[in-house]
Amino acid sequence: MYDVLVIGAGxxxxxxxxxxxxxxxxxxxxxxxxxxxxxxxKANSAIIHGGYAESGKExxxxxxxxxxxxxxxxxxxxxxxxxxxxxxxxAFDEYDQKALDMLYxxxxxxxxxDMEIIDQKKLRELEPNISDKAISAxxxxxxxxxxxxxxxxxxxxxxxxxGCDLFLETEVVGIEKKDKHFLVTSKDGKExxxxxxxxxxxxxxxxxxxxxxxxxxxxxxxxxEYLLMQKGTxxxxxxxxxxxxxxxxxxxxVTRTYHNNLLLGPDAIDEDEVDxxxxxxxxxxxxxxxxxxxxxxxxxxxxxxxxxxxxxxAASTGDFIIEETKVKGFINAVGIxxxxxxxxxxxxxxxxxxxxxxxxxxxxDPTYNPYRRPIIKYKDLEDFNKIKDKIDYEFxxxxxxxxxxxxxxxxxxxxxxxxxxxxxxxxxxKRRTRAGMGFCQGTFCRPRVIEVMEDELGRKLxxxxxxxxxxxxxxxxxxxxxxxxxxxxxE
Length: 491
Prior knowledge:
Helix content: 25-40%
Structural class: alpha+beta
Distance between the termini: 66 Å
Number of strands: 22
Number of helices: 15
């Protein structure tokens, strides 16, 4: 019998499980995929937002800023990668300046004390590569970027190290209320008993809720596509650069990632069904809109390495849904779209309070350890000529370079595979070590990664385990987007 069962191992479920793991509780996390952070938490802008973009009348507006304030300490404890480089929303005309004034006032109402509207002179001192057409900006000093999948991995790894049980490939298909507890059934026939359930199942949030509770909301995928440039390109910008937001999204942004790639996107399209592919027409619009924000030398399509789509779980209510349902003990934490990552620490605290009010006894566990050793830390690439000999080191040498683009060693991959979360696919290794995320996108290192994985596992990997993320997904590649943009100019 578990005290709390969390459905979903994304950023919301991971934050909640880790928050509760500080107490003397038996906690289980159920995830339908073969790894954590496989939904909206994996593919997104990775921005730790300021807290001014949503009104305090909305729950997501009230949770963003306090969530953001927790990230310094979280990164010190969990070592997932957080860079506080600030953000700017730029104005091109009078209309945009009015929008900046509204965002500034909204930020003040939400409690922010680290933002200001800056003029053209200060804007260019802060961001020399900003567009010449930008006339002012809203600057928020405390915003930044993180590595989102590393964040979720760190949360759940730490939760498991503190006693939580993680069940991957465990899709929930049935929930029954039995007197004072719940009986949860998975697709493969496993049964779990729990006193409380937290539904943090992302895009499936409404469907899971309907298994047990009266549910008056729906959740649909809102897709956003991105273009990612090679490592090092992010150095051309000092901050996260936003345009004035739209009703659906915070607008097209240009930013460095935590690992110093330049990232462009996303757009925002409401979908009837899940489509994780990317499309030339949409990427062209994103590319052209992003170029409006910065000088011509910042974005070079020849440095493009990858396109991807993020799927935000947009609720029909337009806001986060975090509440105990009419079925006592069943809590929904769903509809967590942007700024979900930023808000996640505050969401976890809110769910903790809901559980406490519902009757869950919270007794501090003196053995709780909030710290987690990193798998990788940010590093600039070394001069390849000085380390290229390491590629040919003998198999089994910890210093052997498995991935040359991102300079990932064999010992790093073995470390990733011997943590608290089962690391079952090449893509799982990639998210933890960056092997395969470089310029060649795994062309060189994929067989070398598989070699190390098979040695660790003591068996051959299946096709599913070597390429699970790409199965059935059509993504625009470099030659296609370069040719498409070139031909578009001729028309």
